[in-house]
Amino acid sequence: MLKLFEYNWQVRQDWFDWCRDVPEEELLKKRTGGVGGILHTLFHIIDVEYSWICGLEGKPEFKEPFDAYASLKQVMDLSAEFHKEVRPFTAAWTEDMEQKVLTDTWPNGEKVSFKYGEIMRHVIAHEIHHIGQLSVWSRELGKVPVTANFIRRGLF
Amino acid sequence: MLKLFEYNWQVRQDWFDWCRDVPEEELLKKRTGGVGGILHTLFHIIDVEYSWICGLEGKPEFKEPFDAYASLKQVMDLSAEFHKEVRPFTAAWTEDMEQKVLTDTWPNGEKVSFKYGEIMRHVIAHEIHHIGQLSVWSRELGKVPVTANFIRRGLF
User: TM spans, by residue (chains A, B) (predicted)?
Assistant: First the structure.
């Protein structure tokens, strides 16, 4: 399980590096698809990963809006801050946690329950999916996107 | 491991269903990013999944071009055909296969070696990443994309 998280964290860092060469107005520009922008997508990935892990740990989730973090530095700092909590939980993952159940009540009052293993995979797929959107916007900007390859990253 | 493959296969089927409501010229149209088109992306996902699994099984990889499969029906049929071989290998996956080594020589003569667990995760991430690109093109067409959610798919 950890390997795919490590992949996501590497790819995220590569996108942060990619962002350094792009004018901030392009990072903030409204685009078609996903949550509608490059930096907003990176914020959203970080928010969703952290909020679900908080859910699994019984901690309150993160609820602040993107507007409060709308610069590359703020998004990178937020990622680093949350990583201090996300990494240990993910690194301590064991097979017997797969079938544990999280029950929650959503803002609309709906009661939901998910298996821990289901949520961990949801978080993994969520980030990879949104990164795919960044790759299209990168080409629209005339820039080569970060490689999405899992191989050749020293993960094995 | 199997769960994320099952997720990809469900999402892929949802995209095939999504394609049925889209004119074929839109499915074939050249677009910015990825391999440059909706149907070509679905073909590429199927090709890459099958070719890597063939590699792990010691079978010859698939080498035909997209041009030979440039209709929704042909791509769906190819997916179903390859699935007969991909599914059993994936379903029979065990922990002790993680560190097995595949060695290969690439077309440029480079000798490469990868762990089996590395390749399986590469295949998973590859499909999710390209599906993210489809979601952008879907919005460009004014259509709601297939949900990328792993939760609520009955996978756990």
Answer: none
